[in-house]
Amino acid sequence: MGHYATVWDQKEASEIIKDWNGVDQVLLRNPHGASAKISLHGGQVVSWRNEQGEELLFTSNKAIFKPPKSMRGGIQICYPQFGDCGLLDQHGFARNKIWVIDENPPPLYSNESTGKSFVDLLLKPSEDDLKLWPHSFEFRLRVSLAVDGDLTLVSRIRNINGKPFSFSFAYHTYLSVSDISEVRIEGLETLDYLDNLSKRELLTEQGDAITFESEMDRTYLRSPKVVAVLDHERKRTYVIGKEGLPDTVVWNPWEKKSKTMADFGDDEYKTMLCVDGAAVERPITLKPGEEWTGRLMLTAVKSSFCFDQLELQSKGF
């Protein structure tokens, strides 16, 4: 299943547990007390905790934890469609399927497992999937937890079809924040974005940082490899790094829309924010035999971290 590439016991680094529906989850730990849980339903990261046991990902109190519906929160795998800009259900079908543990995955680059506990998952299309979306693929997902508590997701999608196909993709990432009105995002200044609340109108970001006063649903185009989410009240900064994912989606439903979602509390918009590494504007096309890789790394640091350090952080990608 997974490994921990240090001297401590591998059995303590990862184990399989079950949720209350009997669906397998993989629990990853590091030596300092940080942890992550990954559900085989959707390949979804449903928990990421730091060394103090604080939950870093948001999950709605009204989330529905019953397949085939995906759970509202965590990190959802949106494939082969993001949003509703296609023929499939919103965000595609990968997040609604049961994945399997990949015991013998093809190797990743050498440093991807060093000093980390990790698990490899695999999704292949079912006959029903092929009726909806007639393209054969292998989707391999590695989720790893580092000694310092960083969380990394690496997706590899291979075309095993006889013809090319195209897809959009996102790591739909629900971050836990103290108060959305006290949060800002740095790293997306001056970028063009599609305003999904205004028929995908193309606009340009004017602010020094992104702050929140109303509903937001934007796709920032050709965004940098690293952005930062600063939570002033909690004195915490999330550093979000990505590779192979040219876009960044920012979403908060605010009050009015929150009241229309059955699996979301009326006031929960105040304590969450989605910042997604994505490939949305220009779908990815794979020829037969080709493989695409998309990587996401999440770090939570004290707010003494400043945005000028992002250049240093990005050198790790």
From TrEMBL:
Catalysed reactions, as listed in the record: alpha-D-glucose 6-phosphate = beta-D-glucose 6-phosphate
MF annotations from Gene Ontology: carbohydrate binding; glucose-6-phosphate 1-epimerase activity
Alphabetical GO biological process terms: carbohydrate metabolic process
InterPro entries the record matches: Aldose_1/G6P_1-epimerase, G6P_1-epimerase, Gal_mutarotase_sf_dom, GH-type_carb-bd
Keywords: Isomerase
Domain of life: Eukaryota
Record-linked PANTHER family: APOSPORY-ASSOCIATED PROTEIN C-RELATED, GLUCOSE-6-PHOSPHATE 1-EPIMERASE
Record-stated family: Belongs to the glucose-6-phosphate 1-epimerase family.
The protein's name: glucose-6-phosphate 1-epimerase
